[in-house]
C-alpha cells in the first residue's frame, strides 16, 4: 500500500511536471507567433516607407526636369525677343530712310 501510494505520488508529480512543460511550450509558441506577426508588420512598414521614398525621389526628378524645361524655354524666349527687337530696329531704320528719301523727293 505504501509503495502504491509512493508510485501514485510520483506519477502525479510527473503529470504536473508535464503539464507545466506543456504550458511553457504553449507560452513559447504564442510568443513566437506574436514575434512573427510583429516581424511581418515591421517588414510591411519598411516596404511602405521605401515606396514612399522612391515616390518622393521620382517626383523630385520630375520637378527638376520640369524646371530645366522652363529654364530652356525662358532662354529661347529671351533669344527670340532679342531677335525681334533687332528686326524692329532695322525696320525702323528702313522707315526713317524712306521718310527722309520721301522728304527729299518732295523738296
Q: Main beta sheet: strand number and arrangement?
A: none
Q: What fraction strand?
A: under 5%
Helix content: over 70%
What is the rounded Rg? Answer: 46 Å
Helix/strand structural class: mainly alpha
**Shape assignment:** rod-shaped
Query: Low-confidence spans: pLDDT under 50, at least 5 residues?
Result: none
Helix-strand string: H
Question: Count of helices?
Answer: 1
User: Care to count the β-strands?
Assistant: 0
First CA to last CA: what distance? 157 Å
> What is the residue-averaged pLDDT?
95
Task: Give your account of this protein's structure.
The chain has one helix spanning 2-106. With 107 residues, it is mostly helical. The chain is rod-shaped and about 155 Å long. The termini are far apart.
Considering the chains and any ligands shown, give keywords for the structure.
107 residues
What is shown here, in short?
The chain has 1 helix and no strands.
Topology:
Blueprint: H1 2-106
Amino acid at each position: 500500500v505504501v509503495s502504491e501510494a509512493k508510485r501514485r505520488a510520483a506519477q502525479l508529480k510527473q503529470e504536473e511536471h508535464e503539464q507545466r512543460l506543456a504550458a511553457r511550450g504553449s507560452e513559447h509558441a504564442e510568443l513566437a507567433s506574436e514575434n512573427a506577426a510583429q516581424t511581418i508588420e515591421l517588414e510591411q512598414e519598411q516596404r511602405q516607407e521605401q515606396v514612399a521614398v522612391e515616390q518622393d525621389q521620382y517626383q523630385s526628378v520630375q520637378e527638376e526636369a520640369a524646371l530645366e524645361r522652363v529654364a530652356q524655354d525662358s532662354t529661347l524666349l529671351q533669344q527670340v525677343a532679342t531677335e525681334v527687337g533687332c528686326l524692329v530696329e532695322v525696320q525702323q531704320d528702313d522707315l526713317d530712310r524712306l521718310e527722309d528719301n520721301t522728304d527729299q523727293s518732295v523738296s
